[in-house]
Design goal:
There is one protein chain. This protein is of the alpha+beta class. Helices cover 29% and strands 19% of the residues. The protein is globular, with a radius of gyration of 29 Å. The protein folds into four domains: 9-158, no CATH class; 197-283 and 479-566, no CATH class; 293-477, Rossmann fold, CATH 3.40.50; 609-764. The protein has 20 helices and 29 strands. InterPro entries: Ca_channel_alpha-2/delta (IPR051173), VWF_A (IPR002035), vWFA_dom_sf (IPR036465). One of its GO terms (cellular component) is voltage-gated calcium channel complex. Keywords: Membrane, Signal, Transmembrane, Transmembrane helix. The chain crosses the membrane at residues 727-749.
């Protein structure tokens, strides 16, 4: 089993009876006094040599060591975590950073305590209860606090928002370091959960002392990606257990959970025995946070060529997508063969009842007979969309599933689909899926390229990861840091739960601000083709803090002490509905769509270069590097690093690698909104010497880079890497900005002759012309 390393804070007396405590002196309640620093050194497993150094007390989280004060957690009830890394040093730390607690002696403490694994092998226990800490809802709204009036019920939503922002920001700030540290972390597994026991309240086998992780189906636990995911899980787990320590109660069911985008791993408090295949990416809570409200049109090929495996894939793919929908989404399904039919005449709200009906409709109607009439399929899809008067009011997406073999399709059809999809506001993004081995990508890719979409190849082994990729298209279309709510029925208890969720994203660099603090601002501007990349989604159920209680008209309504019984319940629910529907859209550029295509399927999924702003100059960067040409077969990473150093979009950089040592040439198309001099200055400041170029590019550079400016010579070409049919239908293509061969040869020779020279800047006058830059 997996055993969590890092700062796992776990509930040691998980479901002990709740107590009303009177706060004693600053050293804790008399029945549960705080340990002194001297007493801590006597705790079983504690070693000053192991856990204390000149900088203070050493704390380890996900393989990363932090220094806390020498008397951390001892001597008194204070906010020991205030100001401490990694959680509480931020400008807006989580609520629990200000809570009072201390380490205690379980032999003399009669109150619930928690077990800390900040210090592996040490049997340290700590308590919030002895220091008088209370659940937030009780603290703000119980009989003693009700007359205070300093809190509104909507503050509970703000409380969860704060908790989730903390989880997300900590994930984002640590993701890069974890990915490069090579740390090995372990986790308590959900299958089997060796410490879980049956619990009458939760109606399942749980362990409130732990957070468990379930690896995605088929995930190799020894892979680098899985190890990184487990280390990130330990960071999430630490936040989960601290929040649970402050807010949970033994008799109240409420979960904390996280799903990863890359592998579909699932992390949950409380730990639970669960060996069923569970991919969080296909759960409404995940989709709501990752993709926001949306209109979804599923178009499914039911022709005779779709029999057998392809038909099974189509049904499975459609159900996976339906499972992701929430009540903030609108949906329909169109089936087609010789003709086309729709589930309903308009898009309908994706309620639980609708989703159940849709899956039954898929089982009954998705078959295989007749011809493949793409034209009828699109006519019916547009008819349904045009007839819809009430929808999500946010992003639109069509998922078009087929084996890629229409009985009739020509250039006019490509143009008609592209024109119609672009006519909507917001536009309809077409994602096309070639089902099964041997599916023909020609037409499907052409349709996707003409309608701001992506073509995917789907096989039985890749179906889950591929269908989950639609989140990667929608996630960048919304501003980050938008809380989403999902109301659902707990599988085990049948109780109605309300989850608050937030998505996390990879940062551009270790020094970037988090997504909630503007760290993703500027992506897509001025020719930038970068897009936010999803890490995962974290959630905290409102029920962890307070029960929802029975709904109006249900037995037991209103139940005192519940959220629905509060007089401001309508205000709270209005905020929830607003959060679910809000749609701060971001339009993706052509370059950003190309980036997404490249991430989804590599070069074969890309449509062609973005037509960039007019460039009249290029900066040619030449240097020698160690190794052989074969070491540079993949230059994508080098291309991005040089683009970053130059301050331009990746699509403006073309890489050439030739032998004779290894000579690398990067040609940078200068954007219209800057100058060649500015690009050269940016390059010189970051790549101007052998040492700095080696550090920035991550390769061994053997000569100081030589930089030259040339005027662009006009060159016409329509080769976009697509078939003739795709080019005719969607008019995609780009030319590669040309540089006179003799100039390059001269630069290469000079680089070899003057290996230790400083950067040289030369301007070669040539004819001015417009160019298009293609990514390598």
């Amino acid at each position: 089993s997996f055993r969590m390393l890092g700062a796992l804070i776990t509930l040691s007396v998980a479901l002990a009876p709740a107590r009303r405590l009177s706060e004693a002196a600053s050293t804790g309640n008399a029945d549960c006094p705080c340990l002194t620093s001297a007493q801590r050194s006597l705790v079983t497993g504690w070693s000053d040599a192991k856990f204390v150094n000149a900088d203070g007390t050493k704390v380890t989280l996900a393989g990363i060591v932090y220094s806390h004060p020498t008397d951390y957690g001892t001597n008194a009830c204070v906010a020991h975590d205030a100001g401490q890394q990694p959680y509480c040093s931020k400008s807006e730390p989580p609520e629990w950073c200000a809570d009072l607690w201390c380490y205690v002696d379980t032999a003399t403490c009669t109150y619930p305590v928690l077990s800390s694994s900040y210090f592996l092998g040490a049997a340290l226990k700590y308590s919030y209860a002895t220091c008088g800490s209370k659940n937030s809802f009780a603290s703000w709204f119980d009989d003693n606090a009700a007359s205070d009036g300093s809190h509104a019920i909507t503050d509970i939503a703000d409380l969860l928002t704060g908790y989730l922002k903390d989880i997300v920001s900590t994930l984002e700030l640590n993701q890069q370091e974890v990915s490069t540290s090579g740390a090995t972390c372990e986790a308590d597994s959900s299958c089997p959960c060796t410490t879980c026991t049956d619990n009458a309240v939760w109606k399942g086998s749980i362990d409130a002392q732990t957070v468990t992780i379930g690896l995605g189906d088929g995930v190799d636990p020894q892979s680098a990606a899985a190890k990184q995911d487990v280390c990130l899980a330990s960071i999430v787990a630490d936040s989960f257990t601290r929040i649970a320590a402050k807010e949970s109660e033994p008799g109240r069911v409420g979960f904390e959970y996280y799903g990863s985008q890359s592998l579909g791993n699932y992390v949950q408090w409380p730990g639970m025995q669960d060996c069923d295949a569970y991919d969080p990416r296909y759960r409404p809570w995940y989709a709501a946070a990752a993709s926001g409200p949306k209109d979804v049109v599923l178009v499914i090929d039911c022709s005779g060529s779709m029999s057998g495996e392809r038909n099974r894939l189509a049904q499975a793919a459609a159900k996976l997508v339906v499972n992701t929908l929430t009540s903030a989404d609108y949906v329909t399904i169109v089936k087609y063969s010789s003709s086309a039919y729709s589930y309903k005449s308009t898009l309908v709200k994706a309620t639980d009842a609708t989703k159940t009906d849709l899956k039954a409709w898929i089982d009954t109607n998705i078959d295989a007979s007749g011809t493949t009439n793409f034209r009828a399929a699109f006519e019916k899809a547009w008819e349904v969309v045009d007839a819809t008067t009430t929808s999500s009011g946010c992003n639109r997406i069509m998922l078009f599933l087929s084996d890629g073999e229409p009985n009739a399709w020509d250039a006019d059809d490509y143009a008609a689909v592209a024109k119609k999809s672009a006519s909507y506001s917001p536009p309809m993004h077409l994602l096309t899926y070639g089902l099964g081995e041997g599916a023909d990508p020609t037409v499907l890719k052409g349709i996707a390229c003409g309608s701001s979409g992506i073509y995917y190849s789907v096989t039985e082994s890749t179906i889950s990861d591929t269908m989950a990729s639609y989140f990667q298209v929608l996630a960048p279309m919304l501003e980050p840091c938008k809380l989403r709510w999902t109301r659902y029925k707990d599988y085990y208890t049948g109780q109605q739960l309300l989850g608050a969720c937030l998505a996390s994203f990879e940062l551009e660099s270790a020094n970037s601000a988090t997504s909630c603090n503007g760290g993703l601002s500027g992506l897509g501007e001025n020719g930038d083709s970068r897009v936010p990349k999803l890490i995962g989604v974290g959630c905290v159920d409102m029920n962890l803090v307070v029960d929802l209680g029975p709904a109006l008209g249900q037995p037991g309504y209103p139940e005192a002490g519940t959220l629905r019984a509060h007089p401001e319940w309508k205000d709270f629910w209005a905020k929830v509905e607003s959060d679910m529907a809000v749609c701060p859209r971001i339009e993706l550029t052509t370059g950003q769509m190309e980036t997404l295509r490249g991430e989804a399927g590599g070069a074969s999924a890309m449509c062609g270069a973005e037509e960039v702003k007019k460039a009249t100059e290029e900066v040619v960067l030449t240097f020698t590097a160690s190794g052989s040409v074969s070491d540079y077969s993949d230059t994508s990473g080098l291309q991005q690093k040089i683009a970053t150093a130059a301050g331009v979009d990746k699509s403006r950089v073309t890489i050439s690698v030739v032998a004779a040592s290894v000579i690398i040439t990067a040609t940078i198309a200068v954007p219209a909104d800057t100058t060649a001099v500015a690009v050269q200055e940016s390059l010189s400041s970051t790549l101007g010497t052998v040492a700095t170029a080696t550090a920035v590019l991550g390769i061994t550079v053997e000569s100081a880079p030589d930089m030259t400016t040339v005027k662009v010579q006009e060159e016409e070409s329509s080769d976009s890497g697509l078939t003739d049919g795709e080019v005719a239908g969607i008019a995609i293509g780009a030319t590669v900005g040309g540089v006179v061969l003799l100039v390059l040869v001269g630069l290469l020779l000079r680089s070899l002759l003057f290996k230790d020279a400083k950067p040289v800047f030369t301007c070669l006058e040539k004819s001015t012309a417009e160019t298009k830059a293609a990514p390598v």
